[in-house]
Amino acid sequence: MKSVLLTLVVLSFQAWPASNQSIDYSETIWRQGQEALASGNAKEALRIWKTAKDANENIEPDPRIGFDYIEVVTSNKLMDYYKDASDMVYWGLSGKCNENHRSEIGTELERIRPIINPGMYKAWKGYLNNDLDTICSILSRYWKQMDPILSTEYNERLIEHWERIAYSKTHFNRNSATVYGTDDRALVYIKLGEPDYRRRNTMRYNRSQVRAWVMDAMNFPGGSLGGASSSSDSLSRAGATSGDRRPSISRSMVQDRARVDRADRFSREAEQLHRIRDYEIWIYLRDENGPTGDYDKNLVYIFGEHGDTGFFGMLRSLEDMIPDAAFRDQGGQGAVLSPAYLLQLLFYQQVLTVDDYFANAFYDLESRLTSVNGLNKMTAFTARSKNINELNYIQVQAPEEESTFENEKRAFDLDVYQYRLLDDNNKPYLATYLTGQPQKALVFNQVKENRYGSDDFSLTFYNKSTDSDYNVIYRAEKNAPIYLDGRGDVEQMDPSSVFMRVPNIESEIDQLFTAELRLNEETASDSIMAVESNSISAFGKIEKNQPEPLSTNPEQLEMSDIIVGSTITPFVRYADSPVKFDVSHHRKIPADNNLMIHFEIYHLRTDSISQTPGPFEVQYKVRPKNRNFFQRLFKNSNKTSLTLNFETFESTYKTDLEIDTSSFDPGSYVLELKALERSTGREVSRQIEFEIHDS
């Protein structure tokens, strides 16, 4: 019956006007899939939707089909469909978006809002209103840019995003406040994944504890901090009569009773304004090497029921669970213990062990109880503002998004070193060296005992460069050897490295470099297969913007970046590298080796008619970076200077220059390099720092 129905659809499609064929047909397929899904047949819905993509040019891509396809796949954890799910999303965004798709594209923009920065969201929202084709293209390129493993058939980050949406719909359903039909917890979960720690509980009232705090504030002997009563107490004064300087025992008892009654009144007022509210706190552990850089405070998110409305959502601070009336009620004329202040103490005390943020807030509040002039009518307001601002600042430090998939992979650091040059066609490029030590990510005992072999793994470096609209302008991959010599000290094992020539377009170009250490399942031994359960054993990733390219103006004398190295032999030789010596990217030269530099000069003038070479000179100077008083007084002390004269028939001059540094003491130095074209007076210079160190 289903095949007959599909045939009828095709026949009716052929009868439609040509201008509407693809749009109407994709609409029909989308609705057919929805009907199959509503009847409980998810795989049939997927089959129907995929016919739209498989029809190629006969069907106009429809983003609704792509998004619904990946939602069904991830909601049902159909891992065999992950490749198709990624492809269907790309296909759905690849066509000419029209008004029928505006609502779905707007919904998708809201779905990814938690994982993009506000500036991107605002700009893309503008495209949604004015240029649907552009926003569809940008969304497609965005997800391709987010693909962490360039060698696999599907986009792991895209799949993970939709898996988080599916999880959120199942677990965060206190209300439907978000675009996902969930409560606010989904906004953080979709952005950062599962927290490292959760605390779920209810804010309850502790009458005896609140009463003890009030007693402390009144400096009453029965308070938890102790202390004698005072006639100058800020909350209750036991004034003596003018004729009796010492209060009688009975009067003291009356005064004490009055204080107890007043303490009970403060406690009752706070209790009357207390609401039993559920809360949930999420903690993401941070460190100085984490995504937040050198900001090492944990990420804290508070969800709970609002003090006035009872609505469950993300809170600015714990104070949002306190009714506003508690801040307006000052506890009577002349009082400084407001119900809000007592509830703040109570709430922060209940969670002070969760994170330093809560502990610091509690101890700050508590310290005001017995400090001189510690309490005033604005204490609760001031503390609320401070706690809101502090939590907001903590959350601002969060990364735009964080992938659990990437975090679960054993990671190793990548280093990328780039130098600006011009090629033979005067096009800017970056001489790019990628290095890494994947050995660090393997099981240490296996490396130490030399159980791994070089044939057990393959290592591939990748580069993908994209512009501000996520257009891919360059993509490359290169394999590299892995050095497993069994010396036991992984740090001493040789790093793996490759060289790439990356087009240098502009500083707005984003570069993604990754490296994948993959298990060779065909050649690896059974013992290695038992240890390495994943095909991708380790993963490295680094992102950086391109530098400003060199000038291509032939009227401007230009010089490449200086590449530094030494005369160490043997050295790694790269087929495409412009350098023929051992490059030291950190510019550290052994004391018993001479300094080597590579530089290139561009746009030199030559006389093509008379075939006479163009003369120019290169001057280099080397001086200590930090000269002492006597070195500055005698300017030539510890300084090397030399001028070299050259002639060339070409507009470009390339050379490796060896500088004798055998007499240099260990320390930091500055190299100044200047090229001067005598016939025109044009000149260009570069300056770098390097270090001579003991071998």
TrEMBL record:
Positions of the UniProt region annotated as Disordered: 226-256
Keyword Transmembrane helix among record annotations: no
Top-level taxon of the source organism: Bacteria
Residues in the signal sequence: 1-17
The UniProt record lists the keyword GTP-binding: no
Bias (Low complexity): 227-242
Keywords, comma-separated and alphabetical: Signal
InterPro entries attached to this UniProt entry: GWxTD_dom
Protein name per the record: GWxTD domain-containing protein
Species for this entry: Halalkalibaculum roseum
